[in-house]
Write a structure and sequence with these properties.
The protein contains 7 helices and 15 strands. The protein has helices spanning about 25-30, 45-60, 70-80, 115-120, 150-160, 205-210, 260-274; strands at about 1-5, 10-15, 30-40, 40-45, 90-95, 105-110, 125-135, 165-170, 175-180, 180-185, 190-195, 220, 235-240, 245-250, 255. It is globular. The chain starts with a strand and ends with a helix.
Length: about 270
């Protein structure tokens, strides 16, 4: 894995790229991050990822690190250094508030994306409902903070049940989001997804679908959804920056037929390819 850390006006690489133990990102999860996909050197929706990162920094009152404008060049430098131009790579970008009296810490990492993992997800995923509820009024749900422990813990509890993903409900009992994905239900030729007001992270791929589905003749809209709606839909799928989209085969007792989403997901993948 190739790493660049920018701290106090200097760039550090690989083994020299160390983070201070007094860094607030390490101690308290005070910071934000983005996970991006690069196909053959081309990073999917990089400007949108950077915009969301900046929104998170503003909410947490963390100054933008000096090299933020250099991120596109630094990402491509890492891709080349890792010989990742001829495959699919994962780019991790994180910014923390740094240690007391220092400037924010910016970290960039690049590694090859495991194609088997993505293929498995795109073959169909099974999910369960997380046992605790989310507070939709929590402003931190709208940013991708370094304090990602709730999501990771929820995913561990799902995997202990033999499932691939967990779906949160908010305190009103509405469907919210997955631990690493956004949720979509399919009803005929219409795609439904929970609104941001349900208390979710506005995913980059989710926004891409909201903006572009109508180009290929699919109606898509945000709508409050409850577990009972799972019984009345034709299918369901999940989205994330790394896997694009993946069909959902099961969510608790609700079962979905893969045939009802295969054609739709093929149309969606044409959007990503374009």
């Amino acid at each position: 894995m190739n790493t660049i850390i920018f701290r106090e006006g200097r760039l550090y690489r690989n083994d020299a790229a160390l983070i201070s133990p007094a860094d607030s990102g390490f101690l308290f999860g005070e910071g934000v991050f983005e996970t991006m996909r690069a196909d053959y050197g081309r990073i999917f929706l990089l400007p949108q990822h950077l915009e969301r990162l900046v929104r998170g920094l503003k909410l947490l009152e963390i100054p933008e690190p000096e090299p933020l404008g250099q991120i596109p060049d630094l990402c491509h430098e890492l891709i080349q250094a890792g010989n990742l131009e001829q495959g699919v790579a994962v780019i991790k970008l994180a910014v923390s508030s740094g240690s007391p009296g220092s400037t924010p810490t910016l970290l960039l990492q690049a590694r090859a994306l495991d194609p088997n993992l993505i293929s498995q997800r795109q073959a169909g995923m099974r999910a369960g409902l997380v046992s605790w509820r989310r507070d939709a009024a929590n402003p931190l749900l709208a940013i991708k903070s370094l304090n990602f422990l709730e999501n990771r813990h929820a995913l561990r509890t799902m995997r202990a049940r033999g499932l691939d993903e967990g779906i949160f409900l908010n305190q009103a009992g509405e469907l919210c989001e997955g631990t690493f994905s956004n949720l979509f239900l399919v009803s005929g030729n219409t795609i439904l997804t929970p609104p941001e007001s349900a208390g979710l992270l506005p995913g980059i791929t989710r926004a891409f679908l909201l903006e572009n589905c109508r180009r290929i003749g699919l109606e898509i809209r945000e709508q409050k959804l409850r577990p009972a709606d799972l019984e009345n839909c034709d299918g369901a799928f999940l989205s994330s920056s790394l896997m694009d989209t993946a069909p959902l085969l099961q969510l608790e007792q609700a079962r979905f037929q893969l045939l009802k989403t295969t054609g739709l997901l093929e149309k969606l993948r044409q959007l990503f390819a374009a």
